[in-house]
Amino acid sequence: MNLDALILDAETAFTRALDAAALENEKARFFGKTGLLTELLKNLGKLDAVARKQQGAEINLAKTRIEALLNQRRQALADALLATRLASEAIDVTLPGRGIKPGSLHPIMRTWERVEQIFGSIGFALAQGPEIEDDWHNFTALNSPENHPARSMQDTFYVEPLDPNGQPLLLRTHTSPVQVRYARAHVARYQGGVMPPIKIIAPGRTYRVDSDATHSPMFHQLEGLWIDEQVSFADLKGVYTDFLRKFFERDDIAVRFRPSYFPFTEPSAEIDMAFGQGRWLEISGAGQVHPKVLSNMGLDPERYMGFAFGSGIDRLTMLRYGIEDLRLFYEGDVRFLTQFS
Ligand code: DAH
Q1: What residue's CA is closest to ligand 1, atom 7?
Q2: Taking a C-beta distance cutoff of 8 angstroms, is the pair 141, 177 a contact?
Q3: Could you tell me if residue 250 is inside a domain?
Q4: CA-CA distance, 248 to 271, in Å (whole number)?
Q5: Average pLDDT over residues 177-200
Q6: Strand 265-275's sheet: what is its strand order?
Q7: Which residues span the domain enclosing 45?
Q8: 126 Cα: distance to centroid of ligand 1 (angstroms)
Q9: CA 309 to ligand 1 center in whole angstroms
């Protein structure tokens, strides 16, 4: 009868029992009706009085020790079970609440409002036009030739059905049609009287079949138009250069007017800018409003003249904040957007 081995056996078995059920099974192996300890105690009866007394005492000691081991293990298993439950049901009271946080303006809207403010401060009124435009205002009135590539199905989103006059409808490809709409309404309003100058900007959404890091199918343009009897290309240069310096809050902006072609202006230019000695970046199209466009506006080209420009609001925003990928503006990722709040 090796009681030390028995105690060791119990200790190992209890430790290996990983839950209460397994532990109770092991308990039965020692204390059950035919358990190891029970058998030992039963056998005492066969011994003489002296041996019974001595061995009885030893067995009882071993029994007490094994009971203690059993209780220890029971406690440990119960503690572990409680700990896992506490961990899994824990509420982290230090987590921030889900309350509604104040929103912020989208970076493009910040530019939009800033542009309105700057041009407003030098007397430009705000004009608007429809985003679903008709072919005449978007192309024809702006002197765009019938076979101009921008008119193709590949470049432009056409909308069905045709308008009531049988004209194609499309998502405007630029904000320039607002020039024509505004000027015609203006001419009609002052018919027979003295006509004040037309001096507007028209910021708005525009659409093209185009999509990469610097082009998105929907983008924003800023149209400008100033028509009176003596509005020259020199005025365009002054106004636009001043706008860029105010917008970027820098005096070291170089501005360059590079000869270009647009059907609705003559002469036409591409406006490039550079920060200090940096590289040239194209920022706008511009020019003197073409006589045919003036006629389509209902103005006498012999009497009126002026300039127009069309700039990219998204481009202005990218340059102002140093953003490389235009698509970030349209993904709606708050981690990006909150950086402008
Ligand atoms: N509408 C032109 C475009 O989207 C931009 C533009 C160029 C507008 C010259 C103008 C202008 O008003 O004069 O590419």
Answers
A1: 285
A2: yes
A3: yes
A4: 15
A5: 97
A6: 125-126, 198-207, 218-228, 305-312, 281-289, 265-275, 253-262
A7: 3-88
A8: 17
A9: 6
